[in-house]
Structure prediction request, 198 residues.
Amino acid sequence: MPHIIKSGVGKGTLAKINDENQLCVESGSIKHIAYVSSRKNLAFEFTTSQFTITNSEYAVLRFKPTNDLYDMYIERISINWNGGNTNHDRVAFIKLYMGMEAPSANNSSITPVNIKIDNTSTADADIDQWDTVGSGMTVSSNGDIFKLIHASQGYTPVDLHGSVVVPKNGIIGITAEGEEDGKLSLGLTYYAYEKGVS
Prediction:
């Protein structure tokens, strides 16, 4: 016979110990980013312009948080790739770097939007994208690579679930290269969370 545990606050949270001595909680759950977005208004998203890339590595995005109080948690990177202009079944290689140098040319800024539609709080981050002039943003160093993604034709979501944490002045850079010439755009979803809060 299972036992029921109920807290004494409000309607209580039900938990029960089943016949196999396992504690089961009967409660709803939401993704952490949904909580941060709805309760704290600190979840953001942006999409780059559409780039034409070739079989060379292009520096296409640089993300640098600037807030003293919050770390930025990367929830998802969204890759949209046409598979190449000729064959439409080629792969795009997306590389994530730590410490990409600031671009000196061929860049423009991006302003992210708050995911909570009725909120206008801003994301404290400097975000540069390639302006499609030349062969990527002009950077002296991409930094240190920490992730390689092979994206097939269509939409490729890379769910990081906040596992990549970027503090103030920490820098994430992204480069892209195609197996053949093709069209690519990137999206980034992230949230801010107070330093030292778990």
